[in-house]
């Protein structure tokens, strides 16, 4: 059964760009979410997502994927090994960037010693008609 996701919007300071505005929102959000830029660098991650992932430090400013020294150790559902590079393009946050459309999919992430499955829903972030990043919400399935 689908879960309902609500997004809280705190009082925000003025920002210059769309990414800065969404980063400020995500930084204050109670929901598990993140913003990445077109380079697939983490621009913002909510504390709740950091906790779900078991991250000891904030991944802001680092690449999205652990293989590149970043935040998410994404696993293949079939064999539990790191996701092949050709499959990375199908991850919701990445697909929203490259397609400029909403993207949704299940993602298996190594969280500390345990893998967890999330439903990820991503939307492209645009400025002046150009995709500048993506915003992704994560809902823990198990």
Order of helices and strands: HEEHEHHEEE
Work out the helicity level.
10-25%
Strand order of the largest sheet: 2-1-6-5-4-3
Largest sheet properties: 6 strands, antiparallel
Low-confidence stretches: none
Characterise this structure:
- The protein has 4 helices and 6 strands.
- It is globular.
- The longest helix is centred in the first third of the chain and has 10 residues, at 18-27.
- It has helices spanning 18-27, 47-53, 85-88, 92-99, and strands spanning 33-37, 42-45, 74-75, 103-111, 114-127, 130-140.
- A 6-stranded antiparallel sheet has the order 2-1-6-5-4-3, sandwiched between helices.
- The chain is an alpha+beta fold and 142 residues long.
Which key phrases capture this entry?
alpha+beta, 6 strands, 142 residues
Please outline what is shown here.
This protein is of the alpha+beta class and 142 residues long. The chain has four helices and six strands.
Set down the secondary structure blueprint.
Layout: H1 18-27, E1 33-37, E2 42-45, H2 47-53, E3 74-75, H3 85-88, H4 92-99, E4 103-111, E5 114-127, E6 130-140
Antiparallel strand pairs: 1-2, 1-6, 3-4, 4-5, 5-6
């Amino acid at each position: 059964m689908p879960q309902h996701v609500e997004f809280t919007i705190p009082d925000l300071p003025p920002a210059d760009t769309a990414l800065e505005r969404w980063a400020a929102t995500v930084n204050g959000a109670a929901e598990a979410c993140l913003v990445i830029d077109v380079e697939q660098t983490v621009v913002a991650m909510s504390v709740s997502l950091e906790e779900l992932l078991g991250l000891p430090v904030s991944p802001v400013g680092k690449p999205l994927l652990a293989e590149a020294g970043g935040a998410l150790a994404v696993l293949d559902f079939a064999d539990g090994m790191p996701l092949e590079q050709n499959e990375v393009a199908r991850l919701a946050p990445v697909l929203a960037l490259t397609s400029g459309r909403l993207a949704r999919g299940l993602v298996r992430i190594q969280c500390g010693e345990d893998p967890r499955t999330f439903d990820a829903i991503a939307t492209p972030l645009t400025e002046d008609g150009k995709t500048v990043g993506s915003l992704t919400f994560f809902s823990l399935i198990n």
